[in-house]
């Protein structure tokens, strides 16, 4: 496996980096929070070993296959991991999917918005992408509102075999593309 060495997204308060097996404790906590199970998935992560395997076989495998994935997001000031944010390439979706999840203790502080905007900035400047999508559980109004705040627009629903469910679907497009100035 080879992984991108950078650049990665960045923001005023947040640092983005590749996850490692040393982050297993963080992943174990994040992926077992009730909202993670309810709105994202229960991946059966019950131990540090399960989390380390998930990091290697899922998170890092996405970076190896596509050059992007869900970066670990940590506070610059303390190096404390607070969430994940980045792009998921899905066979069933035409565009890369902006994904994010933050520990409950760090929600409502503007970190999700800051992380999402940092990824959008990275997507424009480094990846030169013009369109992204995002999916949310239909009952996840908090994530839906965040997506709208950072410029995504609702575009119906999609049933995804990969997740075994119907999700609300959102699109983000560079505005100059829509205006015909590209």
User: How confident is the prediction overall: mean pLDDT?
Assistant: 92
**Proper CATH architecture of the domain at 14-130:** 3-Layer(aba) Sandwich
> What profile does the largest beta sheet have?
4 strands, antiparallel
Helix percent reads: 25-40%
- Taking all Cα atoms into account, the compactness measure Rg is 16 Å
Low-confidence stretches: 176-182
Assigned CATH superfamily of the domain at 14-130: Gcn5-related N-acetyltransferase (GNAT)
Number of helices: 6
Could you explain the architecture of this structure?
The chain has 182 residues and is α+β, with helices and mostly antiparallel strands. Helix content is 34%, strand content 26%. The protein has helices spanning 24-30, 34-39, 48-66, 111-127, 141-149, 175-178; strands at 14-17, 70-75, 81-88, 97-102, 131-136, 153-160, 165-173. The strands form 2 sheets. A 4-stranded antiparallel β-sheet has the order 1-2-3-4. Residues 176-182 have low confidence and may be disordered.
How would you summarize this macromolecular structure in one to three sentences?
The protein is an alpha+beta fold and 182 residues long. The chain has helices spanning 24-30, 34-39, 48-66, 111-127, 141-149, 175-178, and strands at residues 14-17, 70-75, 81-88, 97-102, 131-136, 153-160, 165-173.
